[in-house]
Design goal:
With 180 residues, this protein is of the alpha/beta class. The protein folds into two domains: 45 residues; 128 residues. Helix content is 42%, strand content 31%. β6, α4 and β7 form a beta-alpha-beta unit.
Length: 180
Amino acid sequence: MQKLLVSINTNKGQAQKKISITCSFFYPAIVWIFFYISTVYIFINMISKEDLKRLVDLRIQATAETPEVVCSKSTGKISMVGNLIPSDPQSFFAPINRWFLLYSTEFDPKQITVDLYLTFINGCSEHHLVSFLKKVEELYSRGVEVRISCHYESDDYDMRDWGRDLRQVLKIPVDMVEIN
């Protein structure tokens, strides 16, 4: 048996929180659990009521590895245009996930539109994108009107097939839009 003492400090003047875990399973599992718990704890504490008042449209400029991202709070439209092959997909998706969490919980959207104009996507980024789309799917299951469109060039069979695969993964209708 191993005993692990975990301390989490915040910058908001809250008391230090300690978690004591006694376990007999693999140490890597403990590390993974700690990482997951601390990530969720930090993410939740990043959101304050002041952030809600200042929620603005999110705009991320495109690079050679990342798409241009535009999230509009007035229209509920989220678009990604370009390559999705960042070296650190978790960091790339962090502001998108944060914006979406604030928008979906505090603005009570009636409709959300996701337009994907992706030219290339790698496996790790695909995982993060599908995780994001699963959050959109949760709103769909609660009655929010959701529309997802995958735009692909007529000769890009890889992105066409990726969009078709996405249809099978999600429980949301995914429109396939061919671009000439």
